[in-house]
Amino acid sequence: MANVAVYNMEGNEVGTMELSDAVFGVEVKENLVHQAVVLHLANKRQGTQKAKTRSEVSGGGRKPWRQKGTGHARQGSIRAPQWTGGGVVFAPVPRDYSFKMNKKEKRLALKSVLTSKVQENKFLVLDELKLDAVKTKDMKKVLDNLKVEKALVVIGSDSENVVLSARNIPGVQTASVNTINVYDILKYNTVIATKSSVASIEEVYA
């Protein structure tokens, strides 16, 4: 089992914690991590782009001039793609970019990135993270004490003050145990979690 230091909100080390190898000590599967990131980005795409083909553009029912004898190149419609205002060749149409990934693969990808953060010493554990009021300055002070700038803060269900205090800090995002994902863990340099959050992660994803 991996041992990590436990810090308080002042940035002082107050103990250590053993992490479960079932979640934080797995073999890192880079191919699954890559697939999970592609899945996340693909599922975020709206796919609402649309342009009209020559069959959808209005007008152009009459042949603009006769086939021969004018000196012009032959033309069949003023809505052909080579005309201004004509249809688009192979125009994009609305589509769904999302695809699915097996649950076991998604879970293993998440465990892989959590393991890599622990191996890189980019996984910080706090004994607790509680703010008495919604104050961005207080949350920023906690991050400064931990010497962290770009971070994903994993919190429990009763941390509304933390969420509201962190939302205006650039480079900081909060997430609950149930909403963490591979993309966000990789996007932020450091993952910060409380002891209770770590226990929940081990319980949910083990």
UniProtKB/TrEMBL annotation:
It comes from the Bacteria. The keyword Ribosomal protein applies. Gene3D superfamilies: 3.40.1370.10. InterPro entries: Ribosomal_uL4, Ribosomal_uL4-like, Ribosomal_uL4_dom_sf. Belongs to the universal ribosomal protein uL4 family. Part of the 50S ribosomal subunit. One of the primary rRNA binding proteins, this protein initially binds near the 5'-end of the 23S rRNA. It is important during the early stages of 50S assembly. It makes multiple contacts with different domains of the 23S rRNA in the assembled 50S subunit and ribosome. NCBIfam families: rplD_bact. This is Large ribosomal subunit protein uL4.
